[in-house]
Structures are given as structure tokens and as C-alpha cells.
Amino acid sequence: MILRHLHAGITVSNLERSIEFYRDIVGLTLIRREPPRATRERKLGVPGAKVEIAVMHYGEHQDSVELIKYHLPDSPNSYGAPVNAIGQIHLTFKVDNIAAEIKRMKALGVEFIGGDDYGENMEGPLAGWKWIYFKDPDGTNLELIEGKLEGLV
């Protein structure tokens, strides 16, 4: 039986840049960094894998994100896939004031998908939600949500 979600792993092209983005813009805290290792290729299913990992926490439950840099082998792509690509996921962060968060993040250089439209006039099961997508430096899809989410997420 699955007990809870523990973390999300995001493959990145530049670990330093991604740590800075998730720390300084998204607000996560770096809690652990592992040096590059070449011991996980079998478990990862990536022949010749050499990976370096940074673990970042956020929220009161210490949810976490693993930033994973593959030193070997080279990535088959150079930027993340669009949200409608099969297998693509997005990571969502709940905020108290989406307009203020958008303003703060824009001042730090974040570009939001769809401009400033965060869906104030949602109907049906999304009524009361405010949400907007943005991307990290490697094109990973991220989302901010404000609203009463109990029973919906």
C-alpha cells in the first residue's frame, strides 16, 4: 500500500543553476548534495550513468525535490517537453497570494505561460482556483495554485 508521495525528481542540465533557481526563485531549501556517482546505472536503467544529486525541501511536511544532473551519458534532448507530451509531468506549488507571487517571480526574470492570466473566473470543479504555469531553466513545467483545494487535489 502506498503511504504518501515523498519527492519528485527533475533531471537538470546545470546543477548549480537549478539549485539557484529552486532556492532563490521558488523558495526551496537545499538540504543535501551528493557528489557524482557512477554506481546507479543498473537501478536507473541508464548504461554508463554518472549522476550528481541535490535534495531540496519545501513546505511544512518537508516535501522534497531531487535535482539530478547526469554527467554521463549525454541527454537525448536539450529542453523539456511541452505539457501535452506523453509522460510529461508538472510540479505544483500552493501559494497564498498568486498575484503577489507572480509579481515577485517576474521581478526575478520568470516568464509565465499565458502571460498574467491565472484563471480567476474558473467554473465547475475548478471554481475558486487561481493557477498559472511557468518553466524552470531546463523547461520543466511548474505551476502555482491559489485556492481551496481540499478534496480536489
What does this structure look like?
By secondary structure, the protein is α/β, with parallel strands linked by helices. It has helices at residues 15-26, 41-44, 98-107, and strands at 7-12, 29-37, 50-58, 63-72, 90-94, 112-113, 130-135, 141-146. The chain has 2 domains: 7-72, 2,3-Dihydroxybiphenyl 1,2-Dioxygenase, domain 1 (Roll); 90-146, Roll (2,3-Dihydroxybiphenyl 1,2-Dioxygenase, domain 1), CATH 3.10.180. The strands form 2 sheets. Strands 1-4-3-2 form a 4-stranded mixed beta sheet, with helices on one face. The mean pLDDT is 90. 15% of the residues are buried. It has 3 helices and 8 strands. The two termini are 19 Å apart.
**Which structural class best describes the helix and strand composition?**
alpha/beta
- Gap between N and C termini: 19 Å
Approximately how much helix is present in the residues? Answer: 10-25%
Q: Sketch the major β-sheet.
A: 4 strands, mixed
Sequence of secondary-structure elements: EHEHEEEHEEE
**What is the CATH architecture assignment of the largest domain?**
Roll
Shape: globular
Strand order of the largest sheet: 1-4-3-2
User: Could you name the CATH homologous superfamily of the largest domain?
Assistant: 2,3-Dihydroxybiphenyl 1,2-Dioxygenase, domain 1
Number of strands: 8
